[in-house]
């Protein structure tokens, strides 16, 4: 049986992904837009294998790790899977080296949950360190320091604690 479908899902269906969102602010996440198709394909005269193509798109507010300000990250995922009935079949499958990155094994049992697969794929699409695109990161405190340095109107004094202050107090006692 083949299937072709598309749609949009509310983010409330993905509790682990919700934990990654920046709280507050005026940036709102989009719905998860998905497209999925399945088909059968015969490989080297063997048993037909079932394939699944899954494409996902989502705009998600994250916290930039450089300036700690919210920004909008666009996540896109475009993956092909070969569906297997058991873990053993998936582990035994010999993925050819030239197509190693193009398809993943996925076990499709009676309890297969497409929402979990979508959430896993989106979590794997998150950046390792969330950051604004280059040139867009504008930390507020650093901007203030830069303006002060440019204008020369205020003197910036950075007080470092004296490491010998404790000894000096002991000496006075």
TrEMBL record:
The lineage's top-level taxon is Bacteria
Q: Which GO terms describe its cellular component?
A: cytosol
Give me the segments passing through the membrane.
Answer: none
Q: Which UniProt keywords apply?
A: Ribosome biogenesis
Which Pfam families is this protein grouped with?
YceD
Alphabetically, which GO biological process terms does the record hold?
A: ribosome biogenesis
Biological function: Plays a role in synthesis, processing and/or stability of 23S rRNA.
The similarity annotation says: Belongs to the DUF177 domain family.
Name of the protein: Large ribosomal RNA subunit accumulation protein YceD
Q: What is the scientific name of the source organism?
A: Polynucleobacter victoriensis
